[in-house]
Amino acid sequence: KYTVVILEQLLFLVIAVIMAVYADPMPMCALFWGFAIHTVLQHIFSSIVFRTYFPGMISSVLLLPYFAYGISILLNLYSVFENIVMAICGLGVIVLNLALMYWLMKKFGDL
Question: For each successive 10 residues of the chain (111 residues), what is the average pLDDT?
C-alpha cells in the first residue's frame, strides 16, 4: 500500500544525491534534515506518545546513530542559520510530498 510513497521518497533522495555529486550538496543536506526530523517525530515520537507500533519505527530507531552522525557533520560544515534553513526547507518538502502522495492514494486508490 505505501510502497509507492516510499519508492517516490527514494527517488527524491537519489535525485538529491546526484545533484550533490554534480552540482550543489545543499538539497541533499536539506532532505537529510527533513528525513531525520520526520523519522523522529512521525515514527518514534508517535509510537511513544500513542504507545503503539507505527510502521517504520524499528528502522527509524536503527537510523538514529546515522542521523546523529550526519547532523554533527552538517553542524560542522554549515552555520547554525544555514542548518535551520535546510531543516525547515527539507521538512517542508517531505511534508508536502507526503501530503500529495497520500492525497493521490486516497483519490486514485492504492496507486
Answer: 76 87 92 91 83 81 93 96 96 90 79 53
Determine the Cα–Cα distance for residues 73 and 42; give it in Å rounded to an integer: 23
Contact 30, 84 (CB under 8 A): no
Round to whole Å and give the CA distance between 61 and 53: 12
- Which residues make Cβ contacts (< 8 Å) with residue 32, sequence separation at least 6? 70, 74, 90
pTM over 0.85: no
Q: Note whether 16 and 27 are within 8 A (CB).
A: yes
First to last CA, the chain: 8
Give dist(CA 25, CA 64) in Å, integer: 22
How far, in Å, CA of 5 to CA of 100, rounded? 10
